[in-house]
């Protein structure tokens, strides 16, 4: 067993080998229970003596809490206790969401329930605990709170101006973070350029709508001093640390169990004050406390994202070579940076990612992150990417238009060459290996450009306006501790897997990454079945329990496959080697001469079956007396994996969008959409395609429909699914997905992330398609979402 | 949010409804398809004592032709409206409205009576029944009365229904061969309430001359909005580019749309004009549309 596994000798992406599952479209194991309604979500869990929480939420964007009178609430049948901020402050410490490596970042201490002031409409202020959720809501309705409304700072443009409302006077101003990245000499490049074009882009504030809302049951057991949280979360180990720290416990006294999770998209990787309040209340009451956010609460309290205004300039020479990007980004993040990932990361990503696909020399990008009295924003699927891609690709198309150049040609001239790697981008991102040109060529093989252009011409004559738009993108995946750990956050970039064989020859994998519907458990099963040499059905996957799985970061930022998958592969290979040592002893053969194929120990050379794993298990576990005394018997192996060479494994891709704009109504119909992406090794093409499609739909959603709209007083107006419009299947186009595979050499598996690629590029591709459609009408849109009103305004019709 | 606590009773006759009303007064609320009421209860916007389920009351069901009128029972589900042969024959506008209303699951439960009683300003059916010049049959413990649909919708979510009164049926006059109708709307996504919509009915003689036009807009006011000036611009004139443009221009005097989440009043007026042309052009011979 001294052969070092390589992608070749372990048969990665070889469909012709038996039990070769990596690279194959196989169904995921949890699908039947999800579609049959037999899954077990947090709200399905009922514990003895359980009580329910409901929150009174601030009706004001900014107000002093003068007095809370809970007498009437306590008289409501079924109501047990009422908790205010002051009550919880006795048992729960506040948190401050800053990261040390984001220089100069500041934010205010946040309590589970505020002590003096509510700072956004929807902030949880008072908790009512009752025998049922309905009774708790009755209790909330009976609370009498006296408010002193205060002026609210809503507009991010004026947040730093003299006279702005100081949201946290102790901070001195509303500036959370600012960073400028510069490379080369932008001003000189602009001055010398053949063309300089500029535009202002807006990405609309929106949120991630999960089918299952945020849910938690916190159960504090006074007998053994432990807190068990059943929690709908992406990061159980992180939450274990958070609950322990805020509630002044040891991490080992906290267990987080995360059963089936109905979608997350980044929404469920943050610390929410209402959830910490529930944990604190459980500790005070010594009873399990359940809280499931309803849709109203979700809209006002789940993190929002993407509330950015960007002014951008691009300089090009006469041949269309990009000389410089100059971008100024402003974002409003609500009244607190969100713990522990912080709300400065999205702006920071914009600085890191603008211009990302292109080879150019001069760069300047500033992000300014400010406070405001709206729902806090934080990381949501494709953090910063769709923003950076919209401004970059919007500017590239404007430059092409100014030059009279085809949008494909300008990209071909500027995309980083496929043989230029390793490559460091102007803001300092290191790329191990990308495939922009291969992706572009593959895309052009899929998109019938000539036919589309002919149709576009013909339709225009009939007054039908169609457009084709492109967007290249890069995506940051497999983050190392450079993302959060470096800044002091207890967020693991490393992940682990334990793989064991039971007596019947079946295999169990316990993993620190988690499943929210994307198929994490499906790929872990494939990887382990492949690595050990058993049929898929013989592998069971366990995730989402801090007490049983290896410590890990969970699932976010596209790391489940790349990090968790590699840990699973390494431990599966180690288990296989261990099994072969035992088999060698039983069969009196050299372990190197044996292999495992579909649950059978076989002769490597001939393929002859020697022993089923069930027989090996029977002997090892029940007749160990018959085996050599010094034989190692641990048919269980654990490996951890962390990336070491690169801070992030970047991926790349390109999208195309074919859309029709009704110039009379302003309605946009997406006719067809294409994406070619390179996530390295594709473990399951079906799942990757689903991820890309789902991501594109979410990207199109933000670009067309999804919008958190506030009134002039800071009240969120879009608090139902009738007002907050998510994309639905009837409006979505056929989406074609293609792949280029450039495996990362950091791991044996070679997988990078695939979950955010779709979202990263879709809004920009759509924007460019709309503008291509509107071009003969002399109109242009750069502010998302591209609603009928926005398009009719651009057309001068209203 | 959870519903407030309330009782539920299923009535099998109208008399039983009257009895429950007498017992609970204002606290009794009629439940039909529940597709609006149950959602609003979850907002805790109202807290009735008892929901009186009327869906098993035979007197409120059925579709028939009686005395020169098409009678549609209030309990007719949207889906039934969409597939009923008598509706297709005599009130095609109603059948054509159905695909615009929400989604199949909602259409399988929601009723025409519930839609008219709730009077959502963006709903399709209120405008359709006004365009068809239908009459509502209203019943209460006090007896039965008839109200023309044009008098029924009195304001934002307001109707001529008196306390305790139910819609029993909708009566649509049978159209003659010259009568045409169309429904058009603009919605952000399929199944959404309209940003703006139009139900139109008119008569066309062989010379394409318009008479008795009824243009009823939805999603642009407090309820169905009959555009009298636009109708006057069409009345007696040949349908064509000119008269359509005149109707579009006249709309400014008919509509005073409120702003909403989708956009400013000017957008609604603009969309109403676009829809006016799109609806009326449907009645033109194919050759003229191309021109
Ligand atoms: C997601 C969604 C989307 C929708 N989209 C649309 C749409 O695009 N267009 C549209 O038009 N509608 C839409 N609807 C509403 C739907 O059409 C409802 O079915 C309809 O508005 C109400 O009918 P109902 O039978 O469900 O009434 P219920 O919800 O049972 O009752 C509504 C109100 O009417 C009263 N009521 C009911 N029946 C009578 C009666 N016979 N006499 C007197 N009062 C009565 C009730 O007391 C209650 O106040 C949508 C609903 C949903 C949930």
CATH class of the largest domain in chain B: Alpha Beta
Biggest interface between chains: A-B, 28 and 23 residues
Distance between the termini of chain A: 74 Å
Helix content of chain B: 25-40%
Task: Tell me the overall shape of chain A.
Answer: globular
Domain FAD-binding PCMH-type (chain B): 1-177
Pfam families (chain B): CO_deh_flav_C (PF03450), FAD_binding_5 (PF00941)
Keywords (chain B): FAD, Flavoprotein, Oxidoreductase
InterPro entries (chain B): CO_DH_flav_C, CO_DH_flav_C_dom_sf, Diverse_Substr_Oxidored, FAD-bd_PCMH, FAD-bd_PCMH-like_sf, FAD-bd_PCMH_sub1, FAD-bd_PCMH_sub2, Mopterin_DH_FAD-bd
Q: How do you describe this structure in short?
A:
The complex is a heterodimer of chains A (798) and B (291). Chain A is built from 19 helices and 30 strands.
Task: Report on the architecture of this protein.
Chain B: It holds the Pfam family CO_deh_flav_C. Chain B: Residues 1-177 form the FAD-binding PCMH-type domain. Chain B: InterPro entries: CO_DH_flav_C, CO_DH_flav_C_dom_sf, Diverse_Substr_Oxidored, FAD-bd_PCMH, FAD-bd_PCMH-like_sf, FAD-bd_PCMH_sub1, FAD-bd_PCMH_sub2, Mopterin_DH_FAD-bd. The complex is a heterodimer of chains A (798) and B (291). Chain A is of the alpha+beta class. Chain A is globular and about 85 Å long. Chain B has 3 domains: 7-53, Uridine Diphospho-n-acetylenolpyruvylglucosamine Reductase, domain 2 (2-Layer Sandwich), CATH 3.30.43; 62-173, 2-Layer Sandwich (Uridine Diphospho-n-acetylenolpyruvylglucosamine Reductase, domain 3); 179-282, 2-Layer Sandwich (Enolase-like, domain 1). Chain B is built from 13 helices and 14 strands. The longest helix of chain B has 17 residues, at 265-281. The radius of gyration of chain B is 19 Å and the shape is globular. Residues 29-37, 39, 74, 101-102, 106, 110-111, 113-115, 117-118, 120, 123-125, 161, 166-167, 193 of chain B line the site of flavin-adenine dinucleotide (FAD). Flavin-adenine dinucleotide binds next to strand 2, helix 2, helix 7, helix 8 and strand 10 of chain B.
């Amino acid at each position: 067993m001294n052969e070092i596994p390589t992608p070749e000798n372990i048969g990665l992406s070889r469909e012709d080998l038996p039990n070769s599952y990596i690279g194959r479209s196989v169904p995921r194991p949890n699908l039947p229970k999800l579609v049959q309604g037999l899954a077990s979500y947090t709200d399905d869990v009922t514990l003895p003596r359980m009580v329910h929480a409901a929150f009174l939420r601030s009706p004001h964007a900014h107000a002093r809490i003068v007095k809370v009178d809970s007498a009437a609430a306590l008289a409501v049948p079924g109501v047990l206790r009422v908790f205010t901020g002051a009550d919880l402050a006795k048992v729960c410490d506040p948190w401050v969401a800053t990261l040390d490596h984001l220089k100069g970042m500041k934010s205010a201490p946040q309590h589970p329930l505020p002590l003096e002031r509510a700072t956004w409409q929807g902030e949880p202020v008072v908790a009512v605990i009752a025998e049922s959720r309905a009774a708790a809501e009755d209790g909330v309705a009976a609370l009498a709170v006296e408010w002193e409304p205060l002026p609210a700072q809503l507009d991010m443009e004026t947040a730093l101006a003299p006279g702005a409302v100081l949201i946290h006077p102790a901070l001195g101003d509303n500036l959370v973070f600012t960073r400028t990245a510069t490379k080369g000499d932008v001003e000189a490049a602009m001055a010398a350029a053949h063309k300089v074009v500029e535009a202002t882009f807006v990405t609309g504030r929106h949120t991630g709508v999960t089918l299952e809302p945020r849910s938690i049951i916190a159960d504090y057991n006074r007998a053994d001093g432990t807190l068990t949280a059943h929690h709908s979360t992406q990061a159980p180990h992180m939450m274990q640390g958070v609950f322990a720290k805020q509630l002044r416990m040891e991490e080992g006294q906290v267990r987080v169990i995360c059963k089936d999770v109905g979608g997350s998209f980044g929404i469920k990787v943050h610390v929410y004050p209402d959830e910490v309040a529930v944990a604190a209340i459980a500790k005070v009451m010594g009873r399990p406390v359940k809280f499931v956010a309803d849709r109203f609460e979700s809209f006002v309290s789940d993190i929002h994202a993407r509330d950015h205004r960007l002014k951008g300039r691009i300089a090009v020479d006469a041949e269309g070579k990009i000389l410089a990007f100059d971008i100024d980004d402003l974002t409003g993040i609500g009244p607190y940076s969100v713990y522990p990932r912080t709300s400065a990361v999205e702006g920071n990503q914009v600085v890191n990612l603008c211009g990302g696909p292109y080879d150019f020399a001069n760069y300047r990008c500033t992000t300014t992150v400010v406070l405001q009295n709206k729902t806090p924003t934080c990381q949501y699927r494709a953090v910063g990417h769709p923003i950076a891609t919209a401004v970059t690709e919007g500017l590239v198309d404007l430059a092409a238009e100014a030059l009279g150049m085809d949008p494909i040609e300008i990209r071909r001239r500027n995309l980083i060459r496929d043989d230029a790697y390793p490559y460091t981008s102007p803001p300092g991102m290191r790329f191990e290996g990308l495939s922009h040109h291969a992706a572009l060529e593959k895309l052009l093989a899929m998109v019938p450009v000539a036919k589309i252009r002919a149709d576009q011409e013909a339709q225009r004559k009939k007054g039908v306006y169609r457009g084709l738009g492109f967007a290249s993108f890069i995506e940051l995946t497999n983050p190392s501790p450079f993302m959060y750990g470096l800044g002091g956050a207890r967020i693991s970039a490393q992940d682990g897997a334990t793989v064991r064989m039971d007596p019947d020859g079946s295999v169990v994998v316990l993993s620190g990454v988690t499943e929210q519907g994307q198929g994490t458990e499906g790929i872990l099963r494939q990887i382990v079945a492949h690595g050990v040499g058993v049929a898929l059905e013989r592998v069971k996957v366990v995730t989402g329990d801090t007490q049983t799985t290896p410590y890990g970061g969970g699932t976010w930022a596209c790391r489940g496959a790349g990090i968790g998958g590699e840990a699973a592969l390494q431990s599966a290979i180690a288990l296989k080697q261990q099994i072969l040592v035992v088999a060698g002893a039983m069969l009196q053969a050299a372990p190197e001469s044996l292999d495992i194929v579909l649950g059978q120990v076989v002769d490597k050379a001939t393929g002859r079956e020697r022993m089923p794993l069930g027989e090996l298990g029977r002997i090892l576990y029940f007749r160990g007396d018959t085996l050599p005394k010094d034989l190692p018997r641990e048919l269980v192996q654990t490996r951890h994996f962390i990336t070491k060479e690169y801070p992030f494994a970047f991926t790349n891709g390109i999208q195309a969008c074919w859309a029709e704009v009704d110039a009379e109504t302003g309605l946009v119909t997406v006719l067809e959409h294409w994406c070619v992406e390179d996530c390295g090794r594709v473990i399951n093409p079906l799942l990757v395609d689903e991820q890309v499609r789902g991501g594109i739909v979410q990207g199109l959603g933000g670009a067309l429909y999804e919008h958190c709209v506030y009134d002039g007083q800071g009240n969120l107006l879009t608090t139902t699914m009738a007002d907050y419009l998510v994309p639905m299947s009837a409006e979505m186009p056929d989406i074609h997905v293609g792949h280029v595979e450039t495996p990362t050499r950091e791991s044996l598996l070679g997988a990078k992330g695939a979950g955010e690629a779709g979202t990263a590029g879709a809004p920009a591709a759509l924007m460019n398609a709309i503008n291509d459609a509107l071009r003969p009408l002399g109109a242009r849109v750069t502010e998302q979402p591209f609603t009928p009103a926005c398009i009719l305004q651009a057309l001068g019709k209203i | 949010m959870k519903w407030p606590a309330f009782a539920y009773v299923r009535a099998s006759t109208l008399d039983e409804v009257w009895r429950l009303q007498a017992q609970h007064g204002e606290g009794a609320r009629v439940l039909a398809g529940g597709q609006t009421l149950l959602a609003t209860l979850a907002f805790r916007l109202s807290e009735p004592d008892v929901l009186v389920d009327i869906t098993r009351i035979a007197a409120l069901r059925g579709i028939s032709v009686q005395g020169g009128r098409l009678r549609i029972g209030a309990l007719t589900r949207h889906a039934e409206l969409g597939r009923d042969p008598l509706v297709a024959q005599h009130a095609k506008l109603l059948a054509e409205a159905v695909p615009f209303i929400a989604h199949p699951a909602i259409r399988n439960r929601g009723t025409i009576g519930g839609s008219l009683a709730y009077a959502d300003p963006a709903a399709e059916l209120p405008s359709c029944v006004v365009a068809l010049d239908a009459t509502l049959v209203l019943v209460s413990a006090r007896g039965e009365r008839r109200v023309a649909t044009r008098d029924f919708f009195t304001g934002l979510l307001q109707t001529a229904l008196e306390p305790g009164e139910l819609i029993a049926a909708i009566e649509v006059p049978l159209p003659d061969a010259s009568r045409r109708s169309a429904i058009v709307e603009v919605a952000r996504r399929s199944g959404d309430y309209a940003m703006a919509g139009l139900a139109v009915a008119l008569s066309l003689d062989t010379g394409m001359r318009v008479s008795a036009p009824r243009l009823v807009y939805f999603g642009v006011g407090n309820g169905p909005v009959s555009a009298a000036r636009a109708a006057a611009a069409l009345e007696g004139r040949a349908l064509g580019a000119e008269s359509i443009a005149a109707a579009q221009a006249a709309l400014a005097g008919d509509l005073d749309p409120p702003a909403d989440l989708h956009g400013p009043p000017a957008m609604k007026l603009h969309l109403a004009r676009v829809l006016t042309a799109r609806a009326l052009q449907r009645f033109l011979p194919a050759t003229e549309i191309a021109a």
